[in-house]
Amino acid sequence: MRILKKAGRLLAAFSFTILMASQTTGVMAGQNQYTSSLKVVYYNQADYPGEKIGGSTIQAAGCGPTSVAVCYSSLTGKKVSVPKMCKQAYENGWYYTGQGCTHDVVPGLSKMYGLNCDGLGYSYKAVKKALLAGHPVVALMGPGDFTNKGHFVVLTRMVGKDQVKVADVGSRANTYKTWSLKKIIRQGKEGADAGGPFWEISKKEKKINYKEEVRKSHSRLDAVPLAIKKAIQ
């Protein structure tokens, strides 16, 4: 009787191992279809009166670092100091007084804060895909609805087939509105470099070695019949 009970437990363990292996396979097959909603943490340039970025103020010229701050806090759930980010942008040569932030400020600050930053150029498809994956997209806007010259904002999520929400760090009014993604792409800053005018920002996730996980599962499966045989003998 004891032998049968022990064999039963081993068979149960064997079945559980098979179940976990099948779940891993399911995750691998379905991971590209996964979408998530971003919980946006909003910062506004006007909330730092008198604070400087180089020889200017955050309110007048700090849209680049403030946009990266929105991405960082939204992805990690952690607060960040916008004035500190602006200071770091200036110290690293990503801001020039009278000219504004260089386009490298987005990948530069993202890397500094442990985030992935992928330049999407003007690709409507790539921007939409990033947003559906729950990744904010920093957008450098040219003349149009958001600015007369140049201005960084954050696209936060899709809310319809071509409808997108925007965290405009310089305008709460624009942030409350819903925008056409096609229109935003058209207003992207011409001549943007560093992969812009649209950048996908995401967390650096620990990569899973699926081949190694499958190998381990097979090793566990191979060990079960031998254990059952020993228990019965």
Structural class, judged by helices and strands?
Answer: alpha+beta
The CATH homologous superfamily of the domain at 52-203 is called Cysteine proteinases
What's the level 1 CATH class of the domain at 52-203? Alpha Beta
Which term fits the overall shape? elongated
Number of helices: 9
The count of strands amounts to: 10
Radius of gyration: 25 Å
SSE string: HEEHHHEEHEHEEEHEHEH
Counting copies of identical and different chains, the oligomeric state is single chain
CATH fold group of the domain at 52-203: Cathepsin B, Chain A
Helix content: 40-55%
Major sheet summary line: 6 strands, antiparallel
Poorly predicted tracts of residues:
10-35
Mean pLDDT across every amino acid position = 83
CATH architecture of the domain at 52-203: Alpha-Beta Complex
Percentage of residues in strands: 15-25%
How is this structure best described in words?
- By secondary structure, this protein is α+β, with helices and mostly antiparallel strands.
- The chain has a domain at 52-203: Alpha-Beta Complex (Cathepsin B, Chain A).
- The chain contains nine helices and ten strands.
- The protein has helices at residues 2-30, 58-61, 63-76, 82-91, 105-112, 124-132, 172-176, 181-186, 210-232; strands at residues 52-53, 56-57, 95-96, 100-101, 115-121, 137-141, 151-158, 163-167, 178-180, 198-203.
- The strands form three sheets. The chain has a six-stranded antiparallel sheet, sandwiched between helices.
- Helix 1 (2-30) packs antiparallel against helix 9, helix 3 (63-76) crosses helix 4 (82-91) and helix 3 runs parallel beside helix 5.
- It is elongated and about 80 Å long.
- The model is unreliable at 10-35 (pLDDT under 50).
